[in-house]
């Protein structure tokens, strides 16, 4: 039962991180098209 609870917590954290990344990309944060100065495009 503990494994299921820990797995659910980890899945929730991963979902929140992905949500923040998608939100930042929609708002224009992150790479901004300058692929020479960041690692997000590679």
Question: How does the helix and strand content classify structurally?
Answer: mainly alpha
Order of helices and strands: H
List low-confidence stretches.
Answer: none
* Beta-strand content estimate: under 5%
**Given the C-alpha coordinates, what overall shape results?**
rod-shaped
- In total, how many beta strands? 0
Distance between the amino and carboxyl termini: 40 Å
Count of discrete alpha- or pi-helical segments spanning 4 or more residues: 1
Amount of helix: 55-70%
Rg, please? 15 Å
Major pleated sheet = none
Mean pLDDT: 79
Plain-language structure description:
There is one protein chain. This protein is mostly helical and 42 residues long. 60% of the residues lie in helices and 0% in strands. It contains one helix and no strands. The protein has one helix spanning 2-26.
Q: Any chance you could write out the topology, listing elements then pairs?
A:
Layout: H1 2-26
């Amino acid at each position: 039962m503990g494994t299921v609870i820990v797995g659910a917590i980890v899945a929730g954290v991963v979902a929140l991180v992905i949500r923040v990344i998608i939100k930042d990309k929609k708002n224009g944060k992150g790479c901004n098209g300058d692929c020479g100065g960041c690692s997000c495009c590679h």
